[in-house]
Amino acid sequence: MIPSRLPRRAGVGFKPEHFADILSAPEPIGFFEVHAENYMGAGGPPHAQLGKLREDHALSIHGVGLSIGSMQPLDRDHLARLKVLCDRYQPESFSEHLAWSTHDSVFLNDLLPLPYTEETLTHVVEHVDQVQDVLKRQMLLENPATYLLFEESTIEETVFLAEIARRTGCGLLLDVNNVFVAATNHNLDARDYIARFPLEVVREIHLSGHSETVDDLGAALLIDSHDTPVKDPVWALYETVIGRIGPVASLVEWDNDVPAWPVLRDEAMAAQRILDAAARQRAA
Amino acid sequence: MSAATQTAFAAGLFAATPPPAGLTAWNSRAPERRYGVYRNNVSASLTGALSSRFPVAERIVGLEFFRAMAQAFVLLHPPRSPLLLAYGDDFPDFVAAFEPARDIAYLPDVMRLEVARGRAYHAADAAPLDPQALAAVDPARLGDLVFTPHPALSIFSSPHPAVSIWAMNAGERPLTPLECWDGEDALVVRPQMIVEVTPLPPGGAIFHRLLAVGETLGLAAEAAMAAEERFDLSTNLAVLLRSGAFTAIREENPDEHRHHA
Ligand SMILES: [Fe+2]
User: How large is the ipTM?
Assistant: First the structure.
């Protein structure tokens, strides 16, 4: 099994509109991450761009459609497509979500939440095993941004993720924005969540923006919208994590209302400064 | 228990009913707006996927109308694969039968052109035929030539001026009142990285279609001439060579030919 091995630097979610800027003024970007499903056509500009980027950069392939949290079997055709993509680009890392998006063969195109029980744990573990068997690589599983809870849940999310990693050998992708969003939505302290998270198996971090609304009772409800700069409390949470575990691959995701390249690059540079400070502190 | 939870969660996403049982929140056991976030994400992301595949149709009918049409389509034809690159191939057929869009007779064909362009965008890469390739062929053998179509090639035909309407709304041509409402044909090609829509002269659609299925140049030209008296071979050959619609030529049964010679 090929281990996930992204450089311990700041990376950026690749958007085609930035391609020309990235090529014309090469900057030290630690790695690029792409959504797997956007590169499943046979050819054309998506592959031409990704092939070019891959020449000079580390790559993370991030799936958004495998539905690992489904109680139904994984889509074998889709898994085969992921295999083709990973074989073609040999990414440093492949990751997916603790969520489901397909039900009865209907693809719902959203990362939907699941109850955390012994039964769902067994299913997710089987699915992660299956993915790693087919891809012959270690995968990373990402913690979700959730808006509600299930009455039947009996296991804490952090324990659930730790147990998946322990049983399958997968790594975890810690999305600190998701932590902040979910903690706020469930009236919990994000720092407590981090304290309970199995940080030793984190191989990548996600940073992104969120938007704010309220629930039926007027309580804060944060939406994982990926359409703004990373917010201050999320940066603070990130610094806490990096302070504890040292530099780790850190990705800035910005998927909607995508800004001009320099804005996104500066976000990544801000993450890089935090990584550099942590590295210096460790060396001292 | 959890399989049932997931089934109920999925079923409620497309229904205007209260959220399924078994959901909760720290402050409420009926988290309607919280569940609504998922409903909204699903609806917005799927109609958004259609918007990005049909930008010209959206421009023609306007954002609000397009969204209503897309929502109606998503309800009846949700995607059956996480591969959204191909989602909506049958949206034009749905629109053709969609009562509120009935007055815009050309709309489904404009959308079919957008489907063809999307397919060409993601098709396998291949180098187009050298425009000089025919110059090297013995003129007596031209009629025996067989062409290999580019993987991105499709031949588009409409009884409406759908190519012009598409071009004007895609910003490829200035918006001007249409003087001629005759049908139009075009090649949809992607010789390099840019998808191109090349309008075809009279008889060009039949001619290129026959070549694309492997008929000889002689047979394709004869059939096009028989079907359309305005068909002009040299004009069509110029389009063929310039467009990048084909990748290779070979002579049909060259051995047999030599045998007869
Ligand atoms: Fe994320």
Answer: 0.95
Which among A81, A108, A148 is the nearest to B13, CB-wise?
A: A108
Report the number of distinct structural domains present in chain A: 1
CB contact under 8 A, A43 and B38: no
Query: What is the span of the domain harbouring residue A52?
Result: 10-283
Rounded to a whole number of angstroms, the distance from the CA of B88 to the nearest CA of chain A is 13
Angstroms from B46 CA to nearest CA on chain A? 7
Which B-chain residues 73-102 have CB contacts (< 8 A) with chain A? 78-85
Taking the domains of chain B in order of start, what are their residue ranges? 1-104, 124-261
Is the entire prediction scored with pTM above 0.90?
yes
A63: nearest CA partner in chain B:
B82
Centre of ligand 1 from the C-alpha of residue A109, in Å = 15
Sequence-distant (≥ 6) Cβ neighbours of residue B64 within 8 angstroms: none
CATH of the domain at A219: 3.20.20.150
Q: What is the pLDDT of residues A56-99, one digit of tens each?
A: 999 999 999 999 999 999 999 999 999 999 999 999 999 999 99
DSSP state at residue B228: -
For residue A173, tell me if it sits in a domain: yes
Q: Which residues of A touch B13 (CB under 8 A)?
A: 108
In a domain, A234, yes or no: yes
Region label for B246, one of left (φ > 0), alpha (ψ between -120 and 50) or beta (otherwise): beta
Residues with Cβ within 8 Å of residue B85, at least 6 apart in sequence: A37, A38, A40, A41, B118, B122
Burial class (CB in 10 A: 0-12, 13-18, 19+), A81: buried
Residue A2 lies in a domain: no
pLDDT digits (tens, 9 = 90+) for B220-234: 999 999 999 999 999
Position B121, amino acid: Y
